[in-house]
């Protein structure tokens, strides 16, 4: 039996009628940009996020960028960011002319290590961008406390962790402004690019709302140099149709993870995901680590098991950031992760048989 890295089939079957109905309603409405569907989804996603505001934007990268812009982070400023995130978090900082200051993750949870944060703060630091990586909430209590003490903004990158929580608070509700992505493979995925900013600050929400729409609140009156980064009506309608299922799908991801944890326990040279006390994990990805990563991936591919690497090159070693003069060895935990991590198949609707198939191939390979 083949097991793909990701299949949309069970999700799509569960919401096929609702999604197609929602799309035809938009089609019939004859209003395709910033209409009722966006307004409705923004209200629903704000409620889900326990925030007062949600601003739908074109994608997760724009959500991060517009958040930094609304906070007036600019050239000469420093922004603390994980050394092991997807490059989008760094790119948003670069877009506003600020400098990403990488901080290493906790080597077992892969999330920003609060114990290392303070050493990275300088008089130029303006913001911290915790990334809830792979689906696990960061230790937001300690991060918010440090940010408050140093008068810094917090912008959560919640692209991978919709519905995760830390100490009972939901991700995307802690920071001054928070960004998420509804890229199709995300836990809440659109049928194309989409993203959102969430916040409890009405003034900041107004700024993001203005920035996403040509710097304009009133048609043809432009207050600031803005962007065209609006959530599509069609994508908003699709997201509204899928949102009621999100926590059910999250539960299914958590069941798959629990089964992997059980079946992969005790295998030599295989590290399983660890969850920090107080945090929940919504398993956007189920990431294991082994020193034989490349060989294991090749073997699994031969057995029809799909896997991916998140991510093979950390941002500081990317060609795009060569100008910052980082070198190999500067962020050893991020570098170690990049050479050892492997994301196993993970999607709502995966069956116990799928998990057993993947696990038994891994056991066979690592035990031989
Ligand atoms: C951690 C993280 N941040 C930001 C993004 C950017 O989102 P998007 O692809 O919607 O621009 C992604 C996903 O691609 C991501 O995984």
Structural class category: alpha/beta
Number of DSSP strand runs: 13
Q: Looking across the biggest beta sheet, what order are the strands in?
A: 1-9-8-5-4-2-3
Helix segment tally: 12
Sheet-strand content, in percent, reads 5-15%
Number of domains: 2
CATH architecture level-2 label of the largest domain:
3-Layer(aba) Sandwich
CATH fold label of the largest domain: Aspartate Aminotransferase, domain 2
Largest beta sheet, briefly?
7 strands, mixed
Keywords: Pyridoxal phosphate
Family: Belongs to the DegT/DnrJ/EryC1 family.
Modified residues (N6-(pyridoxal phosphate)lysine): 186
GO molecular function: pyridoxal phosphate binding; transaminase activity
How would you characterize this protein structure?
The chain has 368 residues and is α/β, with parallel strands linked by helices. The protein folds into two domains: 8-243, Aspartate Aminotransferase, domain 2; 245-367, Alpha-Beta Complex (Aspartate Aminotransferase, domain 1), CATH 3.90.1150. It is 39% helix and 14% strand. The chain contains twelve helices and 13 strands. The strands form four sheets. A seven-stranded mixed beta sheet has the order 1-9-8-5-4-2-3, with helices on both faces. It is globular, with a radius of gyration of 21 Å. The relative contact order is 0.17. The chain binds pyridoxal-5'-phosphate. Residues 59-61, 85-86, 88-89, 131, 157, 159-160, 181, 183, 193, 195 line the site of pyridoxal-5'-phosphate (PLP). This is dTDP-4-amino-4,6-dideoxygalactose transaminase. One of its GO terms (biological process) is polysaccharide biosynthetic process.
């Amino acid at each position: 039996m083949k097991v793909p890295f990701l299949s949309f089939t069970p999700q799509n079957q569960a919401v096929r009628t609702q999604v197609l109905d929602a799309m035809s309603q938009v089609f019939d409405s004859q209003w395709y940009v910033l209409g009722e569907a966006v307004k409705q989804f923004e209200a629903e996603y704000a409620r889900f996020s326990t925030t007062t505001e949600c601003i739908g934007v074109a994608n997760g990268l724009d959500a991060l960028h517009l958040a930094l812009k609304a906070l007036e982070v600019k050239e000469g400023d420093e922004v603390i960011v994980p050394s092991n995130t997807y490059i989008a978090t760094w790119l948003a900082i670069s877009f506003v002319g600020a400098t990403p200051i990488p901080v290493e993750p906790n080597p077992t949870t892969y999330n920003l290590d609060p114990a290392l944060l303070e050493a990275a703060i300088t008089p130029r630091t303006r913001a911290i961008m915790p990334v809830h990586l792979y689906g696990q909430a960061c230790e937001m209590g300690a991060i918010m406390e440090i940010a408050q003490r140093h008068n810094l903004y917090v912008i959560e990158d919640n692209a991978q962790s919709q519905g995760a929580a830390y100490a009972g608070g939901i991700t995307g509700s802690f920071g001054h402004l928070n960004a998420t992505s509804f890229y199709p493979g995300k836990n809440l995925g659109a049928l194309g690019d989409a993203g959102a900013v969430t916040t409890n600050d009405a003034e900041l929400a107004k700024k993001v709302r203005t920035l996403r729409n040509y710097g304009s609140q009133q048609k043809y009156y432009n207050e600031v140099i803005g962007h065209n980064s609006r959530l599509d009506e069609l994508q908003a309608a699709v997201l509204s149709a899928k949102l009621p299922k999100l926590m059910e799908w999250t539960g299914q991801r958590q069941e798959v993870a629990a089964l992997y944890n059980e079946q992969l326990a005790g295998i030599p040279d295989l590290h399983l995901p660890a969850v920090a006390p107080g945090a929940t994990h919504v398993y956007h990805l189920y990431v294991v680590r082994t020193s034989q990563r490349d060989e294991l991936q090749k073997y699994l591919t031969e057995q029809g098991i799909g896997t991916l690497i998140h991510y093979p090159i950390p941002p500081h070693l990317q060609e795009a950031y060569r100008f910052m003069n980082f070198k190999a060895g500067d962020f050893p935990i991020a570098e170690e992760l990049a050479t050892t991590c492997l994301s196993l198949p993970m999607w709502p609707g995966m069956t116990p048989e799928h998990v057993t198939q993947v696990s038994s191939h891994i056991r066979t390979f690592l035990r031989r």
